[in-house]
């Protein structure tokens, strides 16, 4: 936690907190940019989490403080019913209260202090960790009858409808329903999900490139629009509805729509194949699937950057790494790799050191 950690809840607000809620960041093992196409994803929780401490106030005011945005931001305030977008990080808090009220939930104002270990803008979903733990905190503080899948869907609504981030449903579903021991195999169309444990013999490695996806929102929006246009031209409701038999038809689409659709079609198939490999303990199948996913993101979906490609190549040079790929929305962020159990920590250190030497940037090992 940073310098703001000294500003305890009691110092900030003059009374102790009543409720504490947490939600982890997530790493996606495979299934990238498939969620807004109705497809499959396979995220896991990471150990780093976001926490809210909260206390109902008995009036209509919300006061919020985050230790992660610099103390100069101070305590921010708004009044329930007067949420106004355009206030930076506070939009996540305002979005939560607005969306909850629109859905018919009743609650009063509150004081909230936010702390997080999830790096922001690194492809590990600090935003959904924040939405989800705010929703969990308010659910508990005001006994809101909010069941689990609905809570995650409301997290997505906060980002889509208030913050203005056109994200899919994977992130809040993962931050709310995944855990660190198993991957969450999620069908983003039906929202049915299943936990798939990692087989003995592999452990995840997550390394942040230090390149934040600052201007990714515009590119993300473009990719989404390209997918919608490709689906329209192909005459399917969503790219999820394509099958392998459609692959030849993609060549007839104008560039880059064909490549975008090919990424989504092949990525969905790779998620299913990965789930099968995890279930059967077929470790040899995992690496090629992860690397094919990376190549598809780099060449067809065009969301990688040279620093991420470098990390992936360094990972693949390690004999104990089975596979590696860009994880998260891209344009920077982090890589995920699967390493042989017991080797993850040393492998990750070597990759991070070699990366610093070559790129001049600092990589951060987040897992293990
Ligand atoms: P990510 O990939 O990390 O989710 P996003 O761009 O989707 O990246 O979300 C990052 C934004 O979420 C930040 O710019 C900030 O507005 C908000 N955010 C995330 N975590 C926190 C936090 N602990 N405190 C305040 N704002 C946060
Ligand atoms: Mg996010």
TrEMBL record:
Ligase among keywords: no
Domain Galactokinase N-terminal: start-end pairs: 8-55
EC number from the UniProt entry: 2.7.1.6
Occurrences of domain GHMP kinase N-terminal (ranges): 92-176
Domain GHMP kinase C-terminal, first and last residues per copy: 275-356
Molecular function GO labels: galactokinase activity
InterPro entries assigned to the protein according to its UniProt record, in alphabetical order: Galactokinase (IPR000705), Galactokinase_CS (IPR019741), GalKase_N (IPR019539), GHMP_kinase_C_dom (IPR013750), GHMP_kinase_C_sf (IPR036554), GHMP_kinase_N_dom (IPR006204), GHMP_knse_ATP-bd_CS (IPR006203), Mevalonate/galactokinase (IPR006206)
The keyword Calcium appears for this protein: no
Keyword annotations: ATP-binding, Carbohydrate metabolism, Galactose metabolism, Kinase, Nucleotide-binding, Transferase
Domain of life: Bacteria
Transmembrane segments: none
One matching Pfam family: GalKase_gal_bdg
Family note: Belongs to the GHMP kinase family. GalK subfamily.
Protein name, as recorded: Galactokinase
Organism encoding this protein: Archangium minus
Gene symbol of the encoding locus: galK
């Amino acid at each position: 936690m940073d310098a703001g950690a000294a500003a305890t809840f009691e110092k900030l607000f003059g009374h102790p907190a009543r409720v504490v809620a947490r939600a982890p960041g997530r790493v996606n093992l495979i299934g990238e940019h498939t969620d807004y196409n109705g497809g499959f994803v396979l995220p896991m929780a990471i150990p780093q989490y976001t926490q809210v401490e909260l206390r109902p106030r008995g009036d209509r005011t919300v006061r919020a403080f985050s230790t992660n945005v610099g103390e100069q931001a101070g305590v921010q305030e708004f009044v329930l019913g007067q949420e106004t977008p355009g206030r930076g990080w506070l939009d996540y808090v305002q979005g939560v209260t607005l969306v909850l009220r629109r859905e018919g939930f009743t609650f009063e104002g509150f004081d909230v202090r936010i702390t997080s270990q999830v790096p922001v803008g690194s492809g590990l979903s600090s935003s959904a960790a924040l939405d989800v733990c705010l929703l969990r905190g308010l659910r508990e503080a005001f006994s809101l009858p909010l069941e689990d899948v609905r809570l995650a869907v409301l997290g997505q609504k906060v980002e889509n409808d208030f913050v203005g981030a056109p994200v899919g449903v994977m992130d809040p579903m993962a931050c709310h329903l995944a855990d660190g021991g198993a991957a969450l195999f999620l069908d983003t169309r039906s929202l049915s999900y299943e936990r798939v444990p990692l087989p003995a013999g592999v452990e995840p490695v997550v390394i942040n490139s230090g390149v934040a996806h600052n201007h990714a929102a515009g590119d993300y929006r473009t990719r989404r629009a390209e997918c919608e246009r490709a689906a329209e031209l192909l005459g399917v409701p969503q790219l999820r509805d394509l099958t392998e038999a459609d692959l030849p038809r993609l060549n007839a689409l104008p560039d880059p729509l064909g490549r975008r659709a090919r990424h989504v079609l092949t990525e969905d198939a790779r998620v299913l194949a990965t789930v099968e490999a995890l279930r059967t303990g077929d470790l040899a199948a995992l690496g090629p699937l992860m690397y094919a996913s990376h190549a598809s993101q780099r060449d067809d979906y065009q969301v990688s950057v040279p620093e991420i490609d470098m990390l992936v190549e360094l990972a693949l040079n390690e004999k104990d790494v089975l596979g590696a790929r860009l994880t998260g929305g891209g344009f920077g962020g982090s890589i995920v790799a699967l390493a042989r159990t017991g080797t993850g920590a040393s492998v990750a250190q070597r990759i991070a050191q070699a990366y610093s030497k070559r790129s001049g940037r600092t990589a951060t090992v987040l897992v293990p």
